[in-house]
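Supplementary Methods S3. Complex input for the adenosine-5'-diphosphate-bound model.
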Amino acid sequence: MQSEILLNHISMTYQQEGKNSITALEDISMGIEKGTFVSLLGPSGCGKSTLLGIMADLLQPSSGEISIAGESPRTARLNKKYGIVFQNAVLYDWRTVEQNIGLPLEVMKVKDKNNKKEWLDRIEEMLELVNLKDFAKYYPHQLSGGMQQRVSIARALAINPEILLMDEPFSALDEFSKERLQDDLLRIWTKTSKTIIFVTHSIAEAVYLSDQVYVMSPHPGRLSAVVDIDLPRQRTQDMRESKQFYSLVSKIRHSFELEEA
Ligand code: ADP
Ligand code: MG
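Predicted complex, serialized as structure tokens:
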């Protein structure tokens, strides 16, 4: 089976004028299957955002090869193969929820006279997917942080990409909203069958959500372990207290300790 995302010996060095260069990633290889939920987990500075940026064609690696849905990151970007969600919702304050969600469709010219209905239907479908139908006419500042992040997810999925790239999307939320959003995201993932790459520094979050966790270590950023999460689908909150959950968390924690030893 062909990998949806394939990285072959990717390294990334930031050249800084007048300062030492920084090796953010060293020799990263991974193959991610279509439709899986994968986390990139590690402490701050281990290169998670750099790696996601390379997948999203926001950064060019110093060496190595990468393919996204069988294409170069550039072509994949132009063909709208992925959507991105960042830690802060980055919504436009002067646009309502539905106008924010519709933005990528406007950019793609879905909103011209001929397909106005298609445009409205798609926004409606996205509002329903993230449970925000009653908030279509609200402005971002009228929403909680969790709701704003649901708008970001809807906006990223509006163009129906195959892949969703997420950089610590729930890190700024309180513990209660975070758990709710994690369940929302899993429901959306099950319903839409996207491939999700989820960046986080929380071990428990990575275990709860993922099929596979790629554990990364800093200085320089590299892959230190790949852990399969064999908890049953669908995930439920009570699993967080199961023996199996604890043992996966401690397995990952040990892989960090071994690195430091
Ligand atoms: P993470 O997302 O895991 O916190 P980053 O990918 O942001 O890690 O950063 C990895 C390393 O690369 C860090 O040491 C960071 O300081 C460095 N870095 C990130 N972006 C730049 C940049 N634009 N210029 C120089 N160094 C950078
Ligand atoms: Mg980061």
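Residues 14, 16, 22, 24, 42, 44-50, 221 surround adenosine-5'-diphosphate (ligand 1) (CB under 6 Å). The chain has a mean pLDDT of 93.
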